[in-house]
UniProtKB/TrEMBL annotation:
<dbReference type="Pfam" id="PF05582">
    <property type="entry name" value="Peptidase_U57"/>
</dbReference>
<dbReference type="InterPro" id="IPR008764">
    <property type="entry name" value="Peptidase_U57"/>
</dbReference>
<protein>
    <submittedName>
        <fullName>Sporulation peptidase YabG</fullName>
    </submittedName>
</protein>
Length: 294
């Protein structure tokens, strides 16, 4: 077994494909390929497996569930554009000189504890026309990084994600204790920094967590949406789906998790949150020159 090998765990029936992050003595630190799960296992429990067909492009976005979520995101953007155009045409005679408009979608700051996940997310943000800046930041350094990045980027939406998991040998308090999780405390610390920067949950939307994260603690810290109510594994791209939807939801509209659950792979057991206003704005008339931007 070497760093970078793709493996499964015998004790779990080989249900999840991992990549070996590093080897420590006779154990390996593992990162999920499709799920934002951080785990460890003795080397004797591991079985090497062939790299997934999409390993270069991992996490895999070719699953039917995510393809459907992505289709719905793209469709929602088209419907929003049609609605805007109808609004402009309806009011044009008395109020608007030009039969056009421009869009100001919400800007995303995406912090990810996995560089491969980050690359894929940035590609998909681009395909969805979501303005986004992404940074690979180890989970333990996210809070410190946000102190610098928030005033620099000035985002409307912050995604704080990476890898997490419930420790095998938990301390007293069980699942209510943050110490029972690999990275939930780091995510909570980062959310606290975001809320120190902007307390209003509509002015700065926070999406936080990964697989099996402490959902309640993240919400108490100030996250709008977080994982994982059911302490389950979440798909690697679920946080992106929520952020992309918020980016193209009007500031005049409020959405809840019930409105966007079909945009995620893992549903309400995987992610939850509180009612939140979108961050998209329509402007008129249309901007005529490329150098003019908002």
């Amino acid at each position: 077994m070497r760093q970078g090998d793709y493996v499964t765990r015998k004790s779990y029936g080989g249900d999840i494909v991992f990549r070996i992050e590093r080897i420590e003595h006779l154990s390996a630190i593992l990162r999920g390929v499709d799920y934002r799960l951080l785990a460890d296992a003795p080397l004797t429990d591991l079985t090497k497996t062939a790299p997934p067909a999409e390993a270069i492009d991992h996490p895999r976005s070719g699953t039917p569930e995510f393809r459907e979520a992505f289709r719905r995101l793209a469709l929602a953007q088209v419907q929003l554009q049609e609605k805007n155009q109808q609004t402009v045409q309806h009011k044009q005679k008395v109020q608007v000189l030009h039969n056009s408009y421009f869009e100001v979608p919400g800007k995303v700051l995406h912090l990810d504890g996995d560089p491969a996940y980050l690359r894929k997310c940035m590609q998909l943000y681009g395909e969805l026309r979501v303005p986004a800046e992404g940074f690979f930041i180890p989970e333990s350094q996210m809070a410190e990084a946000l102190h610098r990045l928030l005033p620099q980027i000035k985002p409307d939406i912050v995604v704080i994600t990476g890898h997490d998991g419930i420790l095998k040998h938990r301390l007293s308090g069980g699942l209510t204790n943050l110490s029972s999780y690999k990275n939930s405390q780091n995510f909570v610390n980062a959310v606290h920094v975001a809320r120190q920067y902007e307390r209003n949950r509509d002015a700065l939307i926070v999406v936080a967590g990964a697989c099996q994260s402490h959902f309640e603690a993240l919400l108490r810290a100030g996250a709008n949406f977080a994982s994982s109510p059911g302490r389950i594994l979440i798909h690697a791209l679920d946080p992106l789906s929520i952020a992309a939807k918020l980016s193209y939801t009007s500031v005049k509209e409020t959405i809840s998790m019930l409105d966007i659950v079909d945009l995620t792979v893992t549903g309400l057991d995987g992610l939850g949150g509180v009612e939140t206003r979108g961050s998209y704005r329509m402007g008129v008339p249309g901007i005529q020159h490329a150098e003019e931007s908002v």
